[in-house]
Structures are given as structure tokens and as C-alpha cells.
Amino acid sequence: MAKVGRMKLGSEGLKVSVQGLGCMGMSAFYGPPKPQSDMIALVHHAVQSGVTFLDTSDIYGPHTNEVLLGKALEGGVREKVELATKFGINLADGKREIRGDPTYVRAACEGSLKRLGIDCIDLYYQHRIDTRVPIEVTIGELKKLIEEGKIKYIGLSEASASTIRRAHAVHPITAVQLEWSLWSRDVEEDIIPTCRELGIGIVAYSPLGRGFFSSGTKLLENLSPDDYRQTLPRFKPENVEQNNTIFERVTEMAARKGCTPSQLALAWVHHQGKDVCPIPGTTKIENFNQNIGALSVKLTPEEMAELESFAAADVVKGGRYAEEVATWKESDTPPLSSWKAA
């Protein structure tokens, strides 16, 4: 198996494995929760393989994924990993709301610490941006949590370039998490350059297009009725056939390269730069091992361009999210002056 190296994530001192493990699908959103003992075995296998950067959130379950990871971290495993979790999506009366007010930030952090069974979170992300609360106020509370030793580093997820700048001015942001894959490239225009200018690490979630680059339309044949991907525009019948042509082209190129389509798609993300850490999720050890294999796939600039041509913006059909969730994305928060006046 390929050796998993280490990288600096951002400029604040955090070091992580060059590939992480997204843990969401073990407990939520991608069908029913998987057997706990199998998932703990997978986490332990990942850590032994050198993948030590684990990614979760309090909304996964909700809460059950953090509890699962807490169990997996027992017996000395905690000391071997870099643990990231997130706050900001609250389920109240069956409805989701985005919250970034100080009281909520603090309560969410305490809840995550308890479920994970730890006393400090390595990287704490705001999962989605609360457009009612100035970002300076949210980051101000996170800064206090750092001073109290409850978190080490601050991250943002799905934030706009201007929100990232404003947040970074209050306290250095270590990492920004965003969807980045062959077929999700809108971040390249504004957000990636902003992160690079400010020395912020980039964490790419869904680098395999939510599993699409593993098996194309076959993926859809095996989705359970409650799988969240059923709601995504790109997986809808009217879009999926056209999108499958992308998968077919990637598959042809992978055959030439002597790797799998998912390894090729993942290698493309790795080749974006030494400041990028993809966090593919999986629930199977065999798929995890395959993802590690992506680290051995080398791509020339010509091959990168060829891959990108398969998934050009006019080829990909359907948005990243259904409409109601798309409204959460990359909006700015009110100015700080409005909060003080309130």
C-alpha cells in the first residue's frame, strides 16, 4: 500500500495526513447507519495505514457519528489522530437552522467534546455560515474557546471569500472545507485563491463526487430510499445519463493509466497543490485501501487538462445541492457594527 505522507494544513502549525477520512457516511445521510463494530475497525485500519485526519460533525446522525468516533478513539487512539468536527447546523423541531451566535457556539463545542470523549478538538469548523450573525462575532467566541484550551484551530466550511477574509482578520483560520472534485470546480475562481493568499489550508470534501466517480450510474442502483443523494440534482434521472458520460471517459483514461476511476479522480484533487487535503469518505476497508492507492497515481499537466475537459462546466448537468440547501451556501454575514447596535 502507498505510504501516506504528512502535510502542513494552513500556517498555524497543524499537521495532518495528506489524505483524510470523511466519517459522515458511517452514521448518516448515505443510507442507514453501518454496524458500529465494522466502522470502529475501519477507523482503526485507517489510523494504522497512516490516515490520521478524521472528519465528522455534530449534525451527522445527529450526534451519532461523534459518539461512534469517541468509541473508536478509546485505548490510546486519540493521541494518534487529528480530529476535526463541526458546528452550526441545528435541528430544532425537525427543522434545520444555521446558527453562529456565541451561546450556541459554546454549547455546541461542549456537546461535541462530551460525545467524542475528549478535552480538546484539534480543528473546529463552522459547518455553514449564519447570515444573521456577523462572522466576527462567531470567530470571537471560537477564539475564546482556543484560549480556554477547548479547541486548537479554527476552520470554516462553505464560506464566501469575503467571509473568509473577515474571519481571518479576527483570528487566523487554519482550514476551509469545500466541495472540490472533477465535477465541482466553482471554488477555483474566488475561494481557492483567497485561501492561498491568506495561507489557509484547503480540505476537499466529496472529492469522488459523492461516490459517482467510483461506479457511475451503478451507484444509483444500490442507493437506499433514505439516501440523501436521491435528492441531489446531479443524481436525478434527467441529468444522470449525461453525467455518466463523464464517468465513462474517466474510466477509459483510468484503464490506460492502470488504476481505477476513483483513484484517477482522487489523484486529480491531490495534484491541485500541497495545501490541499482531500477527505474521501467510505464505509468499506477495501474502498479505503483503493483510495490510498490514489497517492501513487502520477498525472502530467496534459493528463490533468484531459481529465478536466471531460467534466467541463457545460457538460455537468445539475447543481451541487437541491435548492433549499443551496441557499445556505457562501453568503455574507451582516457587518459587525449592526451587531453592536442590536
From TrEMBL:
User: Per the database record, which ranges form the NADP-dependent oxidoreductase domain?
Assistant: 23-310
Against Pfam families, the record matches this protein to: Aldo_ket_red
Question: What broad taxonomic lineage does this protein's source fall under?
Answer: Eukaryota, Viridiplantae, Streptophyta, Embryophyta, Tracheophyta
The record's CDD domains line, in alphabetical order, gives: AKR_AKR13D1
Tell me which UniProt keywords the record has, alphabetically: NADP, Oxidoreductase
Tell me where on the tree of life, at the top rank, the source sits. Eukaryota
Q: Which GO terms describe its cellular component?
A: cytoplasm
Its EC number is: 1.1.1.-
Q: What protein is this chain from?
A: Auxin-induced protein PCNT115 family
Q: Which GO terms describe its molecular function?
A: oxidoreductase activity
Q: Where is the signal peptide?
A: none
Asked if the record carries the keyword Metal-binding, the reply is no
